[in-house]
Amino acid sequence: SSQLSSLPLQILFYVNGIYYIFYFLVTLAMIVYKSQVFSYPDDFLAPDLAVLFLMAILEVPRLYLGCKGNLTEEEAPLGLSLGVTVGSVVLCVYLLAWQTYVLWADVVLNAVLLCAYGLESGLKVMAIAAFVS
Amino acid sequence: PADTRGAAQKRACSAPAAVTDVARLCVCDLLVAQCDANCCCDPDCSPEEFSLFTTCSVPVVVGDSHLCRQKAAVYSLDVEANPPERIFQLIDQVSPSIFCIHATNYKQALYLRCPEMPTPENFDRLLNEFGSAAFSAEPEGWNVDTEAPNPPDANETHSYQYGAPVQTEDAFLRLPSPVVSSWCSDANPAGFLVNQATKCIRSVSVERCESIQGLSMLFYINSSILAVPKSSQMVNVTVQSIVVQSLDGRRTLLEGGDVLKLPLALGELCLNIVLGVSYHITYTDTGAIVEAAAAFVLGAITKEALSVQQSFQISFTQVNTKPVPLSGNPGYVVGLPVRAGFRPQGYPFLAEFLTNKHSQLTILQSTPSQDCLAAQGARAPVLFGYNMISGCKLRITAAMKCQPLAQTLLDVLKGQSFPEYVASFGNSQAQDVLDWVPITHLHSSEQRLPNPSQSSCQVPVSLGIEVKWTKYGSLVNPQARIVNVTATLSTTTLKQLPSGRERIIPVTSSVVFTDISSPAEPGYKAWPTINIKLPFDFFYPFV
């Protein structure tokens, strides 16, 4: 077939978008909960919040570039999206392991997000390979 | 696991290291080197002692329950075995909550941290950070504001509030009182409308008696009192009276006592030392002070005296009123005198009672000599709630006539003005007739001889006043209210004595307070009822 765009990748982008909104709200709420229940001084709270908001800011161009690249079958935006994904993965690992308080729910949410990123990255590489050749 | 990560972090902590191993923690181990009863985690207990326990007071020792996985030490008693033995298990407790802490990168999250020890270098910083009004170097509010930041309120009439310090020209009206120890502190301000009486000790010496400020009259009257706070209207403190106390304690009122007498050192004595000051402040109902007077007690000290006790008192009276001391508000307070009064004769419709400051119910006061005739006039006030009994002995000779003797005894028992009415509440006003309880008089006579034809001499020998009171008002704050006062006079027959013989009869008077309050029932407000009624013509077209 002449369609090179990857359907699974597109589905994954869509699901990722919805999941990320849910993930962002839940993680923010849990940070608020932690600051009330546990001792959470300001100089530990600020980095955690900064990482979360930075990840949210990065997610928008990442998903947009990925969708655009996949649908127009161009490898440049897709490659750029892959690069931003690396940054998002680093931030996700921070929230998984290096946060001030890592709750069990944090572990679950971040693990799911990491799996999604990993799968996306694999599909992006395959799509780029398909477009280039 | 989070607990091992934070275990070793006591670097420069001067507090003892925290025990975090649950196997070694025991909350009920209070006695050192002895076995605590029913404490299964006590290491000092031997298996024989464990077999005597009935339960384990501390069944589980666990760390922070927020952690997802943590070790728990479980102690239990196996009562089936013979003898009963203690079972100790170290288990891994898993928290089921999804918000349990899986890991933490903040070392001080799970353990109390060592507080910073104050040193001379960091003391100021710590004081600024943690010191508050209670622990600051400069007490706020002691500086009198001389900037006058509110010019538009210049004509606003301030007034003293209850408890506000009475201001004088320089600072506050001082009422020296003992602060921490019994030594006088001159920095205690007198509060407006706060009647106070204090006693404190001041150190003196004859050499310096003229220079010690607190011993001179001038110290107490030289600064004038401000009529209202922050105003320029001054009220001078006048000297009302001076009582001079001699070295043996005798007091005499000084004639022309409004002259200032300063301490005078005369050889081995120092005269005109202030031993007591009594301030009387008159105020208006708008909270302004109009008059201030001070009554002094001056004394003398000898060379050996190292300290002298001074007593100070302040009382406030409203202008144009005559204060009547209340015995409670509204219920009687135990220990305060029972108020009583008379109804003016011939004016049954006049609803005023004559009560003056001395209108109290009084009882005969026992004297050391115990002689009724010598003790005439000595009476003690009846204090609410205090049962009293007193008496004296009367020596009767043959020459005494019956009728004057009976009258004398009646005077001794009842006093000069035995009141007719007693106040039902501690604050009953003279105008409220219904708040006053009449005193019922009962007469009981002891008939020795069955035939009354013989000229019998009945003399009163005992007066018993029974005051019945009840608790009145709410369940949580009951007020004492006098309901009934009965004065029972008992008389006895005196036989005519043969001449030359004497007889001594005891005369007693007593006051008894009986509580006749009925048991209280708590009452609850009725549920409000919903009262819905449709208007008369609600179903107009159909009805």
Automatic annotation (TrEMBL), chain A:
Topology relative to the membrane: Multi-pass membrane protein
Transmembrane segments: 12-33, 45-65, 77-96
GO biological process, any: non-motile cilium assembly
Superkingdom of origin organism: Eukaryota
Location (main, coarse): other
A Pfam family the protein falls into: Transmemb_17
Signal sequence, renumbered to the chain: none
Subcellular location: Cell projection, Cilium; Membrane
Keyword presence, Cytoplasm: no
Keywords from the named record: Cell projection, Membrane, Transmembrane, Transmembrane helix
Keyword Secreted: no
Gene Ontology cellular-component annotations: ciliary transition zone; membrane
Record protein name field: TMM80 protein
Gene designation: Tmem80
UniProtKB/TrEMBL annotation, chain B:
Domain of life: Eukaryota
InterPro entries the record matches: TCTN1-3, TCTN1-3_dom, TCTN1-3_N
Every Tectonic-1-3 N-terminal domain range: 12-122
Domain Tectonic-1-3: 159-319, 328-515
Record keywords: Cilium biogenesis/degradation, Glycoprotein, Signal
Any Pfam family matching the protein: DUF1619_N
Protein name: TECT1 protein
